[in-house]
Amino acid sequence: MINIALDTSILRADPSRRTAPFATLNRLAKKGVVKIHIPSWVIQEYETWRVEEYDTELRAIRTALKNLRKKNAPTHLLEKAMKLHAGLTEAKANVNDDFREWLQAHDVVVWPIEQTHGRRMADRYFAGEPPFGSVKKRDDMPDCFVFESLLDIAASVDGLHVVAPDKRLTRACEEAPGICAYESLDGFLQAPEIAGLVRDEEEKKDALEFACYLCATMDLLPSDIGDQIALAAYGSTFTDARIPEDNGEATVDGMYEAEDLELCIDEAVYYGDGLVVIPFRCEGDADLGFAIFKPDYWTLRDDEFDSIHVEELNDHYFLAQKEYRVGVAGKLAVQLDSDRLCEGVATDQMEEVAGDAEYRVDSVDEVWLAKGEG
Q1: CA distances, 211 to each of 24, 208, 220, 333, 373 (Å)
Q2: Please, which residues have CB within 8 angstroms of residue 279's CB and are 6 or more apart in sequence?
Q3: Are residues 162 and 274 in the same domain?
Q4: Does the predicted model carry a pTM greater than 0.70?
Q5: Residues 8-58 pLDDT 10s
Q6: Measured between alpha carbons, how far is 309 from 256 in angstroms, rounded to an integer?
Q7: 329 backbone dihedrals φ, ψ, rounded to 5°
Q8: Does 131 sit behind a cis peptide bond, omega within 30 degrees of 0 on the bond before it?
Q9: 33, 17, 101: which is closest to 273 by C-alpha?
Q10: Looking at the structure, do residues 85 and 145 belong to the same domain, yes or no?
Q11: Residues in CB range of 229: below 8 A, 6 or more apart
């Protein structure tokens, strides 16, 4: 059995645990091929973060309610805002239920914080030993508690694979006996000693041949893929010097249907059990939201001034929105019939396989301003 331990950042990056790498890990855990270990410190960090996310939104709604009352807003509008606040408050109380169900369903081993961890952490803290970046660097204390748990796990199993994007924690794990470290779940799943457990090579060959066929016949993709990409891009944040915000930062408030879709067949990955993931790139028009300094707004060129919609944010800034052409990069997940793959797929059967497949946008990884914008 393969033993794997996860850091907080991995859980935060995919709270739904449904992207292709996490879905593959779940499948392997269900089959008993992989045993998942998580330090108690990581679980507490993750669950606290989830609650804080709701607290942030609840504070924003309370502020909005206060301002609406000051402006004598209509009663029906206040009631809607209050219902939203009540709904979020109720959801906050149960926000970690699905995570705890996942822990139980996949028989995850939770490792407690031991009394010895504090003493060992103190020794590393004053010596500046990994994962501390330097002597007495307090910001690295949480990582050190996680690291001490990982050492306990490694001492109790025959080889431990740790997935932790934090570079200092990864380096510390690499130097520890009995631990192999990776910065992503993908890195773990593509490792030579793991890949053979994830997928069958003949299935992989047929799945990637299908991906090539799909790239050559894009009209076989479902008609709503462009809408799926637009929805997945919502809320993405990026920076560009052409955005008239202090730091060039903008958020996608809404995107119209994605256009000019290109599939990157050379980077397609087969995850086993009929799941193939194909990176994509596309462009589309999007409404971007950002804060603009009021004096900066009043000194815009006439054409820029007319294209930006603003509303009051505070004494110094407007909340602005403007339509831009953006580029989007992400991953398309295609779920094929795994039994069909086991039997082999002939070229003349590809169209039928495409029609039976399930398609979804697995992730949006990057958004940027298209050339000529700004």
Answers
A1: 19, 5, 11, 11, 33
A2: 263, 264, 267, 268, 329, 330, 331, 332
A3: no
A4: yes
A5: 999 999 999 999 999 999 999 999 999 999 999 999 999 999 988 888 888
A6: 18
A7: -125, 140
A8: yes
A9: 33
A10: yes
A11: 255, 258, 261, 280, 282, 284, 328, 330, 361, 364
As a whole number of angstroms, the distance between CA 114 and CA 19 comes to 33
Domain that holds residue 17: 2-196
**What is the distance between the alpha carbons of residues 144 and 173, in angstroms, rounded to a whole number?**
11
Best CA proximity match to 211, nearest among 142, 135, 171, 267: 267
Phi, psi (deg, nearest 5) at residue 326: -125, 155
In this structure, is residue 374 part of a structural domain?
A: no
Count the Cβ atoms, other than its own, within 10 Å of residue 185. 21
Identity of residue 27? R
Which of 196, 219, 249 terminates a domain? The answer is 196
Pair (227, 145) in one structural domain: no
d(CA 312, CA 323): 19
Q: Are residues 145 and 293 in the same domain?
A: no
Here the tokens at position 234 are 């919502």
What's the CATH number where 142 sits? 3.40.50.1010
In this structure, the chain runs to a length of 374
Which of 167, 196, 225 is where one domain is finished? 196
| Structure tokens given for 157 | 């199993």
Strands across the sheet containing 2-6: 109-111, 34-39, 2-6, 160-163, 179-182
Are residue 222 and residue 192 in the same domain, yes or no?
Answer: no
Please write the tens of the pLDDT for every residue from 219-241: 778 888 999 999 999 999 999 99
Report yes or no on 54 lying in a domain.
Answer: yes
The count of structural domains within the chain is 2
